[in-house]
């Protein structure tokens, strides 16, 4: 096989291509799932037990959508940070400081949502289910605070990063920047439709970052794999 043909074959097998495509696909999935969750999740009245008892199917859908959300939010965030780190490394580091712990803290919310539905399914009365939900929230107050502060400030910083690094059109960066403050407003005034729009804007911003990732070269995305010896060992292993 000629040298040029071998190089072309290796280029086709470059694992960075698959990694970029996977990252681009994952980026908008989590926020899109959360957008739907925030529209349908029971508890807006403050009596979560009564609302879940009245429509348990909505809570089941929340848990169903929570699975792809939990498994894609964090990888999507890491991919977005990887995209921005070469353009604005310091701002990217600050964004990661808030966003990554924020998304990790989100896992406690899934536990609470599961417990509420489980309590309803085993026949607990709505008042007891509400008390159970309130107790879980009080026991996980620190993690909840990390989630609230982390993901709101982190997405704001990600929007600033996208603006300054020109990773997307400016109007899209502005929507990304404002999306999570709008989410906070939606929670305070109990407006599920505003929450849908807010997280939808986060998903839109991540979609633009995904498109930018697809247009990024492999060499800009990551270092290439180390060349292997005839025995299959990496080059640095041969030198030790």
In short:
The chain has 240 residues and is mostly helical.
Write the layout of secondary structure elements.
Layout: H1 3-12, H2 15-26, H3 29-40, H4 48-54, H5 56-85, H6 89-105, H7 107-121, H8 126-139, H9 141-164, H10 170-189, H11 192-214, H12 218-221, H13 235-238
Helix pairs in contact: 2-5, 2-11, 3-5, 3-11, 4-5, 4-8, 5-6, 5-7, 5-11, 6-9, 7-8, 9-10, 10-11
Count of individual beta strands: 0
**What share of residues is helical?**
over 70%
- Categorize the overall geometry: elongated
Indicate the mean pLDDT.
Answer: 89
Radius of gyration: 22 Å
Task: Provide the low-confidence segments as ranges.
Answer: none
What is the N-to-C succession of helices and strands? Answer: HHHHHHHHHHHHH
> Major sheet, described briefly?
none
β-sheet strand percentage? under 5%
Tally of contiguous helical segments: 13
Category by helix and strand content: mainly alpha
End-to-end Cα distance, whole Å, is: 31 Å
Structural description of this entry:
With 240 residues, the protein is mainly alpha-helical. The longest helix has 30 residues, at 56-85. It is built from 13 helices and no strands. The two termini are 31 Å apart. The protein is 80% helix and 0% strand. It has helices spanning 3-12, 15-26, 29-40, 48-54, 56-85, 89-105, 107-121, 126-139, 141-164, 170-189, 192-214, 218-221, 235-238.
List the main descriptive attributes of the protein structure presented here.
13 helices; about 80% helix; mainly alpha; about 240 residues
């Amino acid at each position: 096989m000629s040298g040029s043909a071998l190089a072309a074959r290796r280029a086709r097998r470059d694992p960075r291509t698959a990694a970029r495509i996977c990252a681009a696909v994952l980026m908008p999935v989590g926020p899109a799932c959360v957008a739907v969750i925030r529209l349908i999740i029971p508890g807006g009245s403050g009596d979560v037990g009564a609302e879940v008892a009245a429509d348990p199917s909505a809570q089941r859908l929340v848990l169903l959508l929570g699975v792809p959300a939990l498994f894609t939010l964090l990888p999507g965030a890491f991919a977005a940070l990887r995209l921005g780190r070469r353009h604005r490394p310091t701002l990217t580091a600050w964004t990661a400081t808030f966003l990554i712990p924020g998304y990790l803290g989100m896992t406690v919310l899934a536990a609470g949502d599961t417990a509420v539905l489980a309590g309803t399914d085993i026949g607990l009365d709505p008042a007891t289910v509400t008390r159970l939900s309130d107790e879980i929230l009080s026991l996980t107050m620190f993690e909840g605070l990390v989630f609230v502060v982390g993901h709101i400030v982190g997405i704001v910083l990600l929007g600033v990063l996208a603006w300054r690094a020109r990773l997307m059109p400016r109007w899209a960066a502005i929507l990304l920047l404002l999306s999570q403050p709008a989410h906070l407003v939606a929670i305070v005034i109990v407006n599920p439709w505003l929450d849908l729009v807010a997280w939808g804007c986060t998903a839109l911003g991540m979609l633009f970052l995904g498109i930018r990732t697809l247009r990024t070269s492999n060499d800009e995305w990551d270092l290439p794999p180390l060349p292997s010896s005839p025995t299959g060992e990496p080059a640095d292993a041969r030198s030790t």
